[in-house]
Amino acid sequence: MLRAVAATGSFSAAGRALGCTQPAVSQQMKALEASVGTPLLVRGQRDMRLTQAGEALVRHAAGILAGLTAAEEEVAAIAGLRAGRVRLVSFPSGSSTLVPTALAALRAAHPGTRVSLEEAEPPASVELLREGDCDVALTFRYEGAAGGAEEWDDLVVRPLLTDRLVALVPDRHALARAGSVAIGELADEPWIAGCPRCRGQLVEVCEAAGFSPRIDFATDDYPAVVGLVGAGLGVAVLPQLAVDSVRPRGVRTVRLEPAVRREIVALTLPDLAQVPAVAATLDQLARAAGR
């Protein structure tokens, strides 16, 4: 409005140019002068002229309006999924199974949306989300674990799938052809353990069955776990998703009884759940889990 008044010389002419009334222009100019704290216009009998402050503001008007237009366009692009960024954190077996399918579908549907990927196990991944260092955390928790539903009660939880643990034994093991195995049947075996959280879960399950596992090797690398089992150096229990992420050689997977499961979910903050790019990422993760 200030630029229109400067160009036309009056509130009435500026109003006609902008499609509003003379009183509306007058009211807005008074509000602008109050905002900047100094007069911007000198009102004469026939026209108006700019004060020194008014001239300075009009000189900046083109840049201000261009910046505002650019901001509106950028926000509209993000809202319309023509642009946007999502920072995703995932645990390793999720990164190699669910994430590739989900991100490929997201890129095909919304090529302007960029996704960065970082790996972290829970609870570190959940803390990254709470601290604002990521937008979506692909994570898991074991059924019956301490904390339960309250662990994530401040977050938006998108359930994806239930992942069952399976036993891994060498090809020539006596139980390799068994349809299922009770974990107590492996009590005397040397064990290869996985990530710290999986390791803790293994110890809890074994102790509930009446024994403490003899862990000879521990590694966060699932292919290494499979390789050690395949070499006959011990047995292991891994989530099925982790087994699916590698090519097991020299090993057999056997159903574990009673069943031990973990819940795979995608987490985000309540405000972020309304961001179109984040919502689209959650949707594609759910579709990948469904497949």
Describe the 3D structure:
By secondary structure, the protein is α/β, with parallel strands linked by helices. It is 43% helix and 25% strand. It is built from 10 helices and 12 strands. The strands form 3 sheets. Strands 3, 4, 5, 6, 7, 10, 11 and 12 form an 8-stranded mixed sheet that branches. Strands 1-2 form a two-stranded antiparallel sheet. Helix 5 (92-109) packs across helix 10 (276-290). The chain starts with a helix and ends with a helix. The mean pLDDT is 90.
Key features?
291 residues, alpha/beta, eight-stranded mixed beta sheet, two-stranded antiparallel sheet, 10 helices, rod-shaped
Please specify the SSE layout and strand pairing.
Layout (H helix, E strand, L loop, with lengths): L1 H7 L2 H8 L3 H15 L4 E3 L4 E3 L1 H28 L4 E7 L1 H18 L3 E7 L4 H7 L5 E7 L13 E15 L9 E3 L7 E4 L2 H13 L5 E5 L3 H9 L5 E4 H5 L6 E7 L3 E8 L7 H15 L1
Parallel strand pairs: 3-4, 3-5, 7-11, 8-9
Antiparallel strand pairs: 1-2, 5-12, 6-10, 6-11, 6-12
Helix pairs in contact: 1-2, 2-3, 5-10
**SSE class:** alpha/beta
Distance between the termini: 56 Å
Low-confidence stretches: none
Strand content: 25-35%
The counted number of beta strands is 12
Please summarize what this structure is.
By secondary structure, the protein is an alpha/beta fold.
